[in-house]
């Protein structure tokens, strides 16, 4: 009896399985098969696939600087991210938003790690303008400038070529992130800056790809810590003056909280971030 009962049970299981298959292939009330639902689900999945984030990277330290190379390598490693590099052929630090009248010339070069770059004979803002007009086929979702070798905070902002390049992007209707690594310690700790840049890009990726990000200049400054490590990221306004503070003094072991501005944040070991005017104060 036990053997016969086992066979009956197995037959029942087979019939049940056949019934499920038949049900899956049967038509519903509208005459559409379940396979149509499967096809629709596959189509939905395909439609929801991640879109590519297009980034133009530039700087003011020149195309062969260490900071821009570190950023390009990290951003290029992100999934579904396309990075194009257009930067000055020579160091243009401190040139603000200056531009060159007339036609610009450029050559094809490589960053320190071998990433293709268009090197422009001109200012940082020229590089961004040239890239948008002559290199990319479609406007990018974001322009990243830096990592600059040296912080760009408070009263120094308007003189910064890193900021000037970012402002050129915003003038063209593209969100921009100006990023600078502190030279309070030598050599600059670009790894810490890269971490902050990548985190910002990942946080804002969806809005950037959807074209919903604010078209503003976001200014990011990261200290290089002799002791300890960057204490975190704080959103603060740009300092209006130095107020007797040391521009090159970051103490990452500090326990001070609630800094009033970017210089104050930098001085006590925080990376600072904030939206700054899209034009210089005298512009």
Describe the protein in words.
There is one protein chain. This protein is of the alpha/beta class. It contains seven helices and nine strands, in the order ααβαβββαβαβαββαβ. The protein has a nine-stranded mixed sheet, sandwiched between helices. Strand 6, helix 6 (190-209) and strand 7 (217-222) form a beta-alpha-beta unit. Helix 4 runs parallel beside helix 5 (161-171). Residues 1-36 and 40-48 have low confidence and may be disordered.
Task: Considering the chains and any ligands shown, give keywords for the structure.
single chain; 283 residues; alpha/beta; Stationary-phase Survival Protein Sure Homolog, Chain: A; 2 domains; nine-stranded mixed β-sheet; 9 strands; 35% helix; disordered N terminus
Instruction: Tell me, rounded to a whole number, the average pLDDT.
Output: 87
Give unreliable regions as ranges: 1-36, 40-48
> Mind describing the biggest β-sheet?
9 strands, mixed
Radius of gyration: 27 Å
Give the domain tally: 2
Strand content: 15-25%
* N-to-C SSE string, H for helix and E for strand: HHEHEEEHEHEHEEHE
Per DSSP, the total helix count is 7
Distance between the termini: 97 Å
The proportion of residues forming helix, as a percent range, comes to 25-40%
Question: In the CATH scheme, what's the topology name of the largest domain?
Answer: Stationary-phase Survival Protein Sure Homolog, Chain: A
CATH superfamily membership of the largest domain: Survival protein SurE-like phosphatase/nucleotidase
CATH level-1 class of the largest domain: Alpha Beta
Structural class computed from helices and strand pairing:
alpha/beta
